[in-house]
Write a structure and sequence with these properties.
By secondary structure, the chain is α/β, with parallel strands linked by helices. The protein is built from 15 helices and 17 strands. It has a nine-stranded mixed sheet with strand order 3-4-5-2-1-8-9-10-11, sandwiched between helices. A six-stranded parallel sheet has the order 14-13-12-15-16-17, with helices on both faces.
Length: 399
């Protein structure tokens, strides 16, 4: 089967969030099952990035922008002429769709609020190519640019979702949001995300050393976009409320700034009197990211809404217990096994942080449970579920 995956960001641009890792894992898994997979995405500087990464295949020219092939997955990086935040305008998209779209049997669009998905879905509709849409937690407009997001749904996203042959939800929470938003239940397919840890973790202490955090200090980690949706400020408030002796712990924020949240956190840390124990790092990837997970004692995902929670899965894969809010789709998979699910409040987060830091038996139980949770979170089953769905939608079987 010939599959086209469409995503605003793709490998090697992992600092742009979870989609690049998800799309890569699914694409490479489907190639291993015998499918031909192409990823259509935007170019955020592939030529420069590829030259900076040892062992990465070089960027090559194509009629539509840059291209490369990694582990059997072909990727086309359309040149960006203009971008606003993470969305881009890519004039070569129209030429690509006119020249190549008819060569595919199925289209899978990842994400909303961009200008790649809707035109591709419309072209596929004209060619009667089945289209799968995966909103990746973006269906409910929250926190920023609410007016623009509603306009998008009114003129672009609504039609794309309406015409989709199937819509992917990664947790029961996201499925409920889709149904509440008017998506017919029979069109929704529930398929979790997965995690692909490295073959071995980096040497312990690399991340702590980079931030001058001692090896014996308790370290709490946040890794992700510093955005209102992910509530890093709530975690900072919870951290400041920790009672002695847990008040000696350190907190590290790792990720790109969004809408001035970094400055706000730095100001809050000073006002709360915890600035000397609060550390900030830009986005990390590869070994540096996994070093952050493995060096932490506890990972916290305090989001006010999260369709799944890939970073929590990655932390567990590194053997670090987690605290997640009950608004994260991954919460039921981790609660009581490798982590604790809490209410979206500073007091709830602070209470459970103190419990984990002060109760060695509870901490050991959850840390030992990380291995169990990881077995439930690999990409094998999600890939097989997509394989089955695609065959059902196309009527095509592969040998």
């Amino acid at each position: 089967m010939r599959i086209l995956n469409v995503t605003q960001s793709y490998a090697p641009f992992f600092e742009l969030g979870g989609p690049p890792e998800k799309v890569r894992a699914l694409s490479e898994g489907l190639v291993q099952l015998g499918h031909e997979v192409t990823v259509l995405t935007a170019d955020w500087g592939l030529e420069r990035r590829a030259s900076e990464l040892p062992g990465e295949p070089p960027a090559e020219n194509s009629p539509f922008g840059k291209k490369r092939e990694v582990r059997g997955v072909k990727a086309i990086y359309l040149a960006n002429w203009f971008h606003y935040r993470a969305a881009s305008w890519n004039p070569a998209l129209t030429r690509y769709l006119r020249a190549r779209l008819q060569n595919f049997d199925l289209l899978h669009i990842f994400g909303l609020y961009d200008l790649l998905g809707p035109p591709t879905a419309a072209a596929a509709r004209n060619l009667k190519i089945p289209c799968v849409v995966e909103p990746i937690g973006m269906f409910v407009p929250i926190v920023r640019n609410l007016f623009l997001k509603r306009v998008y749904h009114r003129f672009l996203g609504g039609k794309m979702l309406q015409d989709a042959a199937a819509i992917i939800a990664t947790a029961e929470q996201e499925k409920s949001e889709l149904i509440a938003g008017g998506i017919p239940a029979h069109k929704i397919v529930l398929r979790r995300n997965g995690v692909a840890p490295p073959a071995s973790l980096p040497e312990h202490g690399m991340f702590r050393k980079s931030l001058s955090i001692s090896s014996d200090a308790k370290l709490i980690l946040f890794l992700g976009r510093l955005s209102q949706k992910k509530s890093p400020d709530l975690l900072l408030q919870a951290f400041a409320q920790l009672p002695p002796p847990t008040a000696a712990a350190h907190l590290a924020f790792v990720g790109p700034d969004e809408s001035g949240m970094l400055a706000r956190l730095q100001q809050m840390a000073a006002q709360l009197g915890v600035a000397p124990r609060v550390h900030f790092s830009g986005p990390l990837s590869g070994d540096a990211k996994w070093s952050a997970y493995s060096d932490a004692d506890i990972f916290v995902l305090p989001s006010q809404n999260e369709n799944f929670g890939n970073t929590a899965a990655e932390s567990v894969a590194a053997g670090t217990p987690v605290i997640v809010t009950d608004r994260c789709g991954i919460a039921p998979l981790l609660d009581g096994v490798a982590g604790i699910a809490v209410q979206h409040s500073a007091s709830s987060i602070s209470e459970q942080l103190a419990a984990l830091l002060n109760d060695p038996a509870l901490y050991a139980q959850l840390k030992n449970g990380c291995a169990t949770a990881v077995q439930r979170l690999d990409w094998g089953m999600p890939v097989l579920e997509m394989d089955s769905l695609y065959k059902k939608l196309t009527g095509i079987t592969t040998s």
